[in-house]
Amino acid sequence: MKQSQITVFRDQLITWFEANKRDLPWRRTDDPYSIWVSEVMLQQTQVKIVLDYYERFLESFPTVIDLSQADLQLVLKSWEGMGYYARARNLHQASGIVRDKFDGQLPRDQGSFRSLPGAGEYITAAVLSRAFDKPLAVVDGNVKRVLSRLFMIDEPINSANANRQFAEHASTMLDPQRPGQFNEAMMELGATICTPKNPNCKICPVSNFCESYIQDRQRDYPVTAIRKAIPHHHLVVSVICKDDKILIVRRPLSGLLGGLWELPGGEIEKNETGISACSRIIKDSTNLDIETPEQITRVKHAYSHFSIEIDVYRSRYKLGDVYLKDHIDYRWINWAETDDYAFHQAHRKIFNKLTKG
Are residues 256 and 344 in the same domain? Predict the structure, then answer.
């Protein structure tokens, strides 16, 4: 595409965006901290879900200083249900760095911002272009889809080899005078018009530049590589009852679902029954002896890279003191107190089923 065409492309796209953009709360602010929070939430979560969290989160932690001084459990509780909890942990950790190293002000230069926990290429480009007009191109799934159709890119969109190619195209098309607007416009185009299936090309503001549309091949793009079947894991957890309380344990702060609470449990081994697995795992992970477990329900849950099926057992405490093997904390709590702790969604499904039951 010639430079003169790129200039017209930018103008047409931004003109369309300003006239048609969705009214979203993070578009009504120029506060760098609020923009940062929104971009972290939006990185791996749909807009309709983020809408339920964004304003509540900012009410709880209105400034970067407030976030840095908050207990991590409160932050995770505010994030509960949105998934990808490493984002919340990184945001909380990064806020402390911003407070201590940058006097409570988000760093404006790319290198300093990139050094913050969780600030990858996407977050860095999104925040700095929107908050400080830095000429950095955002490349997310929506942008890749637009570019793949615009230039008929045959490299699979989900291939690691394609990242550089998409980044180069995005940087070429970026409007250096209006980078924040342009990035948002590209993402908005992908989210509302250049959709994965049945793109609405007839109302696309830049279809006259789109090679796949001109050749009537827009449905052939983006190209995607076939993914391998995701692993499936069969787990057991136990509702261990001691008087009127149940035992919950907290996961390590790093790793999958770090810092969240859960019922004690683990994965069933091959040729092992759920009852024997439950007793074995509880003894190994908590040092407790329990009475014969009774299965009370089953839940299924899917993550981005694997799925799980959890058999839930109820058992009574028999003897022993809690000594944790892999977890970092525990509590004996009343059933109603589960609402006070941050659990991952699979456990919320368990609680909901048992409460309704």
Answer: yes
Residue 156 resides in a domain: yes
DSSP code of 291? P
pTM of the model: 0.88
Which two structure tokens, joined as six digits, stand for 135? 């000429």
Q: Is residue 288 part of a domain?
A: yes
Tens-place pLDDT, residues 291-348: 999 999 999 998 878 899 999 999 999 999 999 999 999 999 998 899 999 998 999 9
Judge if 252 and 216 occupy the same domain: no
341 within domain boundaries: yes
Contact 237, 310 (CB under 8 A): yes
CA atoms of 92 and 100, how far apart (whole Å): 13
Residues 320 and 216 placed together within one structural domain of the fold: no
Q: Tell me, what's the pLDDT at 277? A: 93
Are both 253 and 310 inside the same structural domain? yes
Considering its fold, how many domains does the chain have in total? 2
Same domain assignment for residues 175 and 292: no
Q: Which two tokens stand for residue 248?
A: 């919950």
Active site residue 211: no
Q: What pLDDT digit, counting tens, does each position of 194-210 carry? A: 999 899 999 999 999 99
* Annotated active-site residue in 18, 39, 59, 294: 39
Domain that holds residue 64: 3-220
Q: What is the pLDDT of residue 162?
A: 85
The confidence score (pLDDT) of residue 356 equals 63
For 120, the enclosing helix (H) or strand (E) is none
CATH of residue 272's domain is 3.90.79.10
Q: Is residue 24 part of a domain?
A: yes
pLDDT tens, position by position, 81-91: 898 899 999 99
Distance of CA 52 to the CA centre of its chain: 14
List, as own/partner pairs, every contact residues 226-233 make where C-beta atoms lie below 8 angstroms and the sequence separation is at least 24, other chains included.
227/158, 230/302, 230/305, 230/306, 230/307, 231/305, 231/306, 231/307, 232/306, 232/307, 232/308, 232/309, 233/267, 233/306, 233/307, 233/308, 233/309
Q: What is the pLDDT of residue 286?
A: 95
